């Protein structure tokens, strides 16, 4: 799992365009290229779940990391954001969010099977003691172009790529199932007791979006962006929504304060296959859903 010391993120907003347009220099071709670096914190109210199997019926159901595994719903996390604006209308950005959580549950409340992790199935039963860790890193890179500009506003479109790196680690009383030839034993035969089950998932999702910035009062800007994408291709099915609304104020040369509210939601399903008797057979679909909402605050420096 990637655990960066710094989380590099971007606001898909080119508020620098509004600043440049209101400059005393009337020659717009002389607008300089610039970087903007944000350093701040964001509050995440998280909701995450993954699909597991009922050992009695064989059906799948979602299990909640916050309710069942007792992971914290609320977190305050640092973030860093970087934007490069050039040639008056063009913007490049890179964004990194990292949300790591772990917790202990002394008595699991329901039976469930973790299917097809490294080719094995694992049974966790009621009353088992379980330590759970869920690490999610979200990398976003992209390009934005200002379609409309004025002395106090900018509106543009963007394209980019979100990539999620997900690691779920379970430690405790866990049994290993022995599937039959149909891969549907439902853990009738359980052997061994591994202490650690480590499942990783990497899912890239492209996206398209719109953004805008408006200087509603001298030195004060309202900004917003919305990104969306849905894909169903080959063995991957996923969607994401990323919406942010914020206010920025420039309090001295090159320095600004930003306050925003962010909503982020992603659902990813990856079809898994397992070899049985030299044949590739479709098994359990690996699915994880994750969302967080909350305010963000940052100090921004343009250079």
Task: Report on this structure.
This protein has one helix spanning 15-21, and strands at 8-9, 34-53, 60-64, 74-86, 90-105, 112-117, 120-124, 130-149, 153-172, 175-177, 190-191, 196-217, 220-233, 236-252, 255-276, 279-302. It is mainly beta and 303 residues long. A 10-stranded antiparallel barrel has the order 2-4-5-8-9-12-13-14-15-16. Residues 1-30 have low confidence and may be disordered.
- Report the uncertain regions: 1-30
Mean pLDDT: 82
* Strand residue content: over 45%
Main β-sheet, in a few words?
10 strands, antiparallel, barrel
Task: Report strand order across the widest sheet.
Answer: 2-4-5-8-9-12-13-14-15-16
Number of helices: 1
Quaternary structure classification: single chain
The helix fraction, in percent, is: under 10%
Structural class: mainly beta
Span between termini: 32 Å
List the secondary-structure elements in sequence, H or E: EHEEEEEEEEEEEEEEE
**Spatial shape:** elongated
**What Rg do the Cα atoms give?**
23 Å
Secondary structure: number of strands: 16
Task: Set down the secondary structure blueprint.
Elements: E1 8-9, H1 15-21, E2 34-53, E3 60-64, E4 74-86, E5 90-105, E6 112-117, E7 120-124, E8 130-149, E9 153-172, E10 175-177, E11 190-191, E12 196-217, E13 220-233, E14 236-252, E15 255-276, E16 279-302
């Amino acid at each position: 799992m990637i655990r960066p010391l710094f989380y590099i993120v971007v606001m898909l907003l080119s508020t620098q365009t509004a600043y440049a347009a209101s400059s005393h220099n009337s020659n717009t071709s002389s607008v300089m290229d610039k970087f903007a670096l944000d350093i701040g914190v964001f509050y995440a109210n998280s909701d995450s779940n993954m699909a597991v199997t009922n050992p009695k019926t064989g059906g799948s159901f979602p299990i909640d990391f916050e309710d069942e595994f007792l992971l914290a719903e609320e977190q305050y996390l640092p973030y860093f954001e970087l934007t490069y604006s050039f040639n008056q209308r063009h913007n490049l950005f890179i964004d990194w969010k990292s949300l790591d959580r772990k917790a202990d549950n002394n008595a699991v409340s329901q039976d469930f099977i973790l299917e097809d992790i490294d080719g094995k199935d694992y049974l966790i039963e009621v009353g088992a003691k379980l330590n759970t860790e869920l690490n999610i890193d979200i990398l976003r890179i992209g390009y934005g172009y200002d379609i409309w500009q004025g002395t106090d506003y900018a509106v543009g479109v963007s394209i980019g790529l979100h990539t999620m790196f997900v690691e779920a680690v379970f430690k405790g009383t866990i049994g290993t199932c022995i599937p039959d030839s149909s891969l549907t034993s439902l853990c009738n035969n359980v052997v061994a007791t591994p202490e650690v089950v480590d499942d990783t998932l990497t899912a890239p999702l492209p996206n398209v979006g719109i953004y805008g910035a408006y200087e509603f009062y001298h030195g004060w800007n309202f900004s917003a962006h919305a990104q969306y994408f849905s894909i169903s291709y080959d063995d991957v099915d996923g969607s994401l929504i990323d919406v942010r609304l914020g206010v920025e104020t420039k309090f001295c040369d090159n320095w600004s304060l930003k306050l925003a509210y962010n909503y982020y939601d992603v659902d990813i399903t990856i079809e898994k296959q397992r070899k049985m008797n030299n044949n590739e057979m479709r098994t359990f679909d690996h699915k994880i859903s994750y969302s967080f909402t909350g305010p963000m605050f940052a100090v921004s420096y343009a250079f």
